[in-house]
Design brief:
alpha+beta; 2 domains; four-stranded antiparallel sheet; about 10% strand
Length: about 350
């Protein structure tokens, strides 16, 4: 099976998930290592399973102090960054700001999660409703660290609140978390190595200078409510699709159980329908004759109406009789379920 090609950005630009295109600035680094997020089996043994007590990190954190400090800075300002999402999504240097977050899956390790950026997290929070959590008591949390098994779904992800406090928690639909993040992350692999980017400190300094280094509770609340609406719409869509599937199966089995009775009905129905059509053809001929007489002056409009009304009434009665036969007979055969003659016809055709 041919692998799906990676999204191609315009030359010198990046195109975001919402379609907007940002100008990029060529990196001034002397050596730019290419970024690859192709999935591969973890050979370190660290991510062979996720059964460690914390589940989110190796027991020994061997990262440099600078990485730990940047992570702390990211977490303490996560909601500030969220509140400035439009600013971040309008500047490629902010969007491509690297973050030292090491996400990982059992068996494949950190592959697929290499070199996440600030913009990737913003798009993740925007486009993955499961990445934002509002508890019944109003507490708001952003998912920032992904760890778990793609096979069993067992996971220990990490969430952060507006105070920068974080906790580990199992999310209910793990594939609905790691897959979207991985897709967004790999979308910008080439841009990460080619284009210039601010550091996290520079981004926060810009916000401070612009007077926007603050998370407004009202804005945050609106954002989380909007995410809840998206979640509910998806749930409604999924439930509707599921109910339609169940309805279709029930419909089929119900008709199949009454197949012989429905075949007898439809044979009689076809005969009655053919008889109705013949009678309607005769009525149409009578109508054409009356219209011709009126055009030729043999009768006036009032006489035409007087002669046509009983014929028109007969036409309506003929059509109503067939409809009544259809409704009453099918109600007797399938009393607890509405079935039309068209439904029966389609069912019998499928069974042929």
């Amino acid at each position: 099976m041919e692998e799906e090609k990676k999204f191609q950005h315009p030359e010198g630009k990046i195109q975001l998930l919402d379609g907007r295109v940002l100008d990029c600035y060529q990196s001034q680094r002397l050596k730019c290592e290419p970024v690859s997020n192709e999935l591969e089996i973890d050979t370190s043994g660290v991510y062979l399973s996720m059964k460690k007590p914390s589940g989110s990190r190796p027991v020994k954190d061997e990262r440099e102090d600078e990485e730990k400090e940047l992570e702390r800075l990211f977490l303490s300002n996560a909601f500030v960054l969220l509140d400035n999402r439009e600013r971040i999504l309008s500047d490629s240097r902010m969007f491509l700001c690297p973050l030292p977050i090491r996400n990982g899956l059992a068996y494949t390790g950190t592959s697929g999660f290499h070199h996440p950026t600030l913009g990737i997290y913003i798009e993740f929070w925007l486009h993955c409703p499961a990445a934002t959590v509002m508890k019944d008591n109003g507490e708001k949390w952003l998912l920032w660290h992904i760890a778990g098994s793609p096979l069993s779904g067992s996971n220990r992800c990490s969430l952060v609140n507006s105070q920068g406090e974080w906790k580990c928690e199992q999310v209910s639909s793990f594939s609905g978390i790691w897959r979207p993040f991985m897709e967004i992350n790999s979308r910008y692999d080439e841009a990460k190595s080619k284009y210039d980017a601010y550091t996290l400190r520079q981004v926060l300094n810009i916000f401070e200078n612009e007077g926007t280094k603050v998370a407004y509770e009202k804005n945050t609340h609106i954002f989380f409510l909007e995410q809840i609406i998206i979640k509910l719409k998806k749930e409604i869509h999924d439930l509707r699709r599921y109910s339609n599937e169940l309805y279709g199966k029930y419909h089929y089995h119900l008709l199949n159980e009454k197949r012989s009775e429905l075949e007898a009905f439809f044979t009689e129905y076809q005969a009655k329908r053919e008889d109705m059509r013949n009678k309607l053809d005769e009525i149409q001929v009578q109508r054409m004759k009356l219209r011709k007489q009126m055009r030729e002056g043999e009768i006036d409009h009032l006489q035409y109406q007087r002669l046509w009304m009983p014929i028109h009434k007969e036409k309506n009665n003929i059509q109503a009789d067939l409809r009544m036969y259809e409704l009453e007979t099918l109600h007797e055969i399938v009393p607890d379920f509405f079935v039309s003659a068209y439904d029966v016809e389609q069912f019998l055709k499928e069974k042929e």
